[in-house]
Design a protein that fits this description.
The complex is a heterodimer of chains A (about 190) and B (about 190).
Chain A lengths: L1 H15 L3 H16 L4 H13 L4 H39 L8 H31 L8 H20 L6 H16 L3
Helix pairs in contact in A: 1-2, 1-4, 2-4, 2-5, 3-4, 5-6, 6-7
Chain B lengths: L1 H16 L4 H15 L5 H13 L4 H45 L2 H28 L4 H19 L6 H20 L9
The chains are: A mainly alpha (about 190), B mainly alpha (about 190).
């Protein structure tokens, strides 16, 4: 039964995840939280792990969630489910519907989808920063996450201004790990 | 059979050596499949990128399926796609077995307190980059702002509304606007 849920859940992710990995993160949060597979904390950790290991982020998250819920079969089913829609859609487009994407109605739908996804990604980013950086679990304002957020934000967005491209995502994750140890290592 | 093995191995190598998701992968796929193996042309590669952006799913999977199908039909598509997925599947599966144990080690838990904040910043940055590339027109901007506000409300109040619902609404609204613009006297067709 859990395997069936995993399959349906990640099929939804694969089918609606437009706009690459960051478009998929809000969807995966949605599915994973609504089934109660992981909490927000663990999911955030796994996003960082997926970003720091090779391969498509969506596939990495599917494998992890599947494995955490139902071991190896779960990992296999969730991964297959997240890959299946894009696999089938590309085959259909190549074999049958070469002009599908140029169809004006399809274009109109895509024109609506793209800004909507950007809005969803923006909201997810803002929400995660507010939740992790300002108000932690108890709801009380805590000083360490606040300082970490300000410092990491300044370094990351500042580096893009100094040097073209700035710090890479993996660079930021390594830096934040060191900053986390530095901030929480002492009592 | 040799070609199938080659497709599988090439995409397994791409899957193993690209960090940071889709767009980082495109340059490597370009180098392997266009310059070295000459499986597809540069123009076709640009085409796949556009298709990948307009279809759901991981961009890397879209590319692997496309190249594999082009070379060897359905078996080729399967070989390339499995090759793409396999390395990260193995790595993440191993991590998933040990991660809980890792998090009990104090300094690793501390590191993740910092990492958690970095993830939020990365998502915000991705959104900002997409907004910069977005068309500066009133309709997409309005849709973007509505989606942003709605999603923020959903997150903060833990509402049971899926982001898929928001996407379906945006698609219907955009289609309706298109049909309304088109209908009156077919003026739109003249442009």
């Amino acid at each position: 039964m859990i395997c069936f849920d995993l399959f349906i859940g990640f099929l939804k992710v694969g089918l609606f995840a437009f706009g690459g990995a960051y478009g998929a993160i809000p969807l995966i949060r949605d599915v994973v939280l609504s089934y109660g597979w992981l909490d927000d904390e663990m999911l955030t950790y796994m996003i960082a792990v997926s970003e720091s290991t090779p391969g498509p982020i969506m596939v990495n998250l599917a494998t992890y969630v599947g494995s955490s819920q139902a071991g190896f079969p779960g990992a296999l089913i969730a991964t297959a489910a997240v890959v299946l829609p894009s696999f089938v859609i590309i085959l259909l487009i190549m074999a049958l519907l070469k002009k599908l994407l140029k169809n004006p109605y399809v274009q109109a739908v895509l024109r609506g989808l793209k800004p909507c996804i950007i809005g969803i990604i923006l909201a997810t980013g803002v929400y995660m920063i507010l939740k992790n950086g300002l108000v932690m679990r108890s709801g009380a304002l805590q000083i360490r996450p606040l300082i970490l957020t300000a410092a990491l934000g300044a370094v990351y967005f500042g580096s893009g201004k100094v040097k073209k491209g700035g710090i890479s995502p993996i660079g930021l994750i390594c830096l934040s790990a060191v900053a986390g140890i530095a901030a929480y290592g002492w009592r | 059979m040799i070609l199938l093995t080659e497709l599988f191995l090439t995409f397994a190598r791409i899957g193993l050596f690209t960090f940071g998701g889709g767009y980082a992968m495109i340059s490597l796929i370009e180098r392997c499949c266009v310059e070295q193996k000459q499986w597809i042309t540069h123009d076709e590669m640009m085409n796949v990128t556009v298709i990948a952006e307009s279809t759901p799913g991981p961009i890397a999977i879209n590319c692997a399926t496309f190249v594999g199908y082009k070379q060897k039909g359905l078996p080729g598509a399967v070989a390339a796609t499995i090759g793409m997925v396999l390395p990260s599947f193995c790595i993440i599966f191993l991590i998933s077995v040990y991660l809980d144990g890792f998090l009990e080690i104090a300094w690793i838990a501390h590191a993740f307190m910092g990492i958690k904040i970095a993830v939020g910043l990365l998502i915000l940055d991705a959104a900002i980059k997409m907004i910069r590339k977005m068309q500066k027109k009133p309709i997409p901007r309005t849709i973007m702002l509505f989606a942003f506000a709605a999603m923020l409300l959903i997150d903060f109040f833990a509402l049971r509304v899926s982001s898929i619902t928001l996407m379906l609404i945006a698609a219907v609204v955009s289609l309706a606007l298109f049909l309304m613009k088109r209908d009156p006297g077919k003026e739109g067709a003249a442009k």
